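Exercise: predict the fold of this chain.
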Amino acid sequence: MPKRSDEGYSNADAFGTIVVTARRREENIQDAPLAITALNAQALRNMNVQSSTDLDARIPNLSLSPSPGNASSTLVAYIRGIGEYAPNFTNDATVGVYVDGVYRARMSGNLSDLIDIERVEVLRGPQGTLFGRNTTGGALNIVTRQPASEAGADLRFGYGSDDEITASGSFDTGALGDSGIKARVGLYRHQRDGYVDNTLTKAKDDPGAVRTTAVNGAITAELGDFTLDYRGDYSRTRAISNASQILVASQAVQDYFSKSPGYGGAPFIVSDRYLSKLAQAGTLPASRIVSYGNALTAEYRVSDAFSVKSITAWRSLSIRENTQLDGNGALLGEVLGAVGPVPVSPYAAVPSSRRKQDQFSQELQILGKAGDFDYVAGLFYFNENVSEFAPYFLTFVIDANTAMNMQPTTAYNAGAKSYAAFGQVSWRPSSLDERLELTVGGRYTRDKRTMDQQNSFDGFPLPDRSLSRSFRNFSWTASLSYKWSPDVMTFARVATGYKAGGFNPQSANDGYGPMKAVSGEIGIKADLADRRVRINATAFYTDYDDLQVTQFVAGSNGTTNETVNAGRAVYKGVELEVAVIPVSGLRLEGSLGYVDPKYKTFLYRDPVQDKIIDVADQARFAYVSKTTAHLAAQYQTQLDIGELTLRIDYSYKSGRYWNVLDRDSPYNAAIRGGADNNLGARIALGKIPLAGGEWEVAAWGDNLLNKHVIVGGIDYGSLGFGGVTYNRPRNGGIEVRASF
């Protein structure tokens, strides 16, 4: 069968080839028999993607949002309705994040810290064979740029709303003589004032304010058949958590805290609308996040058809976080055990929580081709150690005149070790002109989890716990694809996935078991009309057994995230991506994702009857938007001075609940996030020859409709109130780029 070629095609008049490595080898995205979307550096720039959350809803069935009230930008990632929204360091991610082949167990939400991104690949559905860990929902595979063969520099400066300044520089040495060595260093600075005005602080300490400095480096040595590739990165962030506000409160809570001004304290604020100004207690210092790591990839090409690759990586993350979650000023009230008015708060973390994480991973791959067969096999090892010390301060209201101050503390050390062996082989018979591809693969995994817990309450130690559990799993995948022509392919894929069990340090139980998934999908990938029309469509059905569900619970003993194996659920849905080039230079894009999840069983211990009951007909799917949609139009034309690019993007995401059971979350419906309609635009004049370089000047805007949408919520249950976090209001800016 004739091979597909890009010769004679440009970006303006037809779709070219996007090379991905989702199956551990380079291939055209249109030839990969799985649901995957990839965006290269230029596409990310045109879409004005500056953080991972900017991808939210722009890819079918992908939801990326920050954890509510979390200054560390902990990423809440969902693919096809599956994800993990509790930021506990002992919970594995359901959506795996990989950077240059290295699994990142804990990932912040800012892509720009990586500086030199070549492309982002979003793999939907279980990826249990080739990827390191816990990819039952899907994976984000991020690839950064290799050092260039020629010396050069890429510079960027931007200024925007809220005094936002972004500056970065990437510098390549080029090939150093005949040594085969080339290097690159990148520098990044981002600072922004808060976008909600805290009247008690300076702008740099307003909610949403951030100051980040990052540096990374890459060195590649090509020594004949042997290649060494080193990557190192460091980032330091000072941040104020996004504004939280109380949306709803019980009458007793309102009556009690409303007495605060009479004692000389701040007024108690409850609002069912977005507040652009808050008199939020400004006594807590900013959060500090430090992240750094190293990775070394060594590859030996034995022949054109056989190579051995090693990926060794070590990372560290340290977070000292201060979070104010009730959005109020310094409240005063009378409490049991105290004489006269004292500080009170519906809920706040004081003075700070401290979380640390270290991880080491080692992967060995064997890649090759033998006749009609392509194969990859390997071994994987992962070791993670985490710790947390998190004191809380809250006031438990008994009635309108009576309350108690509480100071529970969560403290633990935990570890995770994982060992795996994997392999996958693809057969493309030459007798069928490589139209047919059959792929099978498997992965055996052994996980061990430990946790030592030393919680306390009001300064008094609670009984220590030392827990340990081990898990084993075999996951497999099989796919069949057929190319009806060089530009039309259909495929069917069945895959299983697995997420290890473990321990929730805020739960009272002794841990939870693994979650397993079996997924089937069928799809088509087609380039039509002389490759001016691209249509990719997938329909899927996924069965999850022993589904891990985390439910937020609050009471007089503090707050907990209870994680249990609730039962069984099925997720079915469709994904459609369409792109059209009707005339040269004009590109129209559209995508649609729909997922319809249903619980088959949801086991719950009724606290009144003290027995297990099935509440599948009542349980909700937290953080899940059933519908995501994206529309975009981009026009590009060459002018005498340079290349003009105009782009407009519209994305839609349907409403979401934040908690699973209304019976445990009385304000679940009240704090529900509504539909999100986001309109953004960017205009750029690029490829301007000036001062020996190539320049680009651009202006952009986001949330142009200025919609105030709830993007996170916490139901504090028996504490008597529900809090929410809103998205960033309308914002925009300008930027200048130069390449030399």
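Check your answer against the key: The first helix runs from residue 41 to 46.
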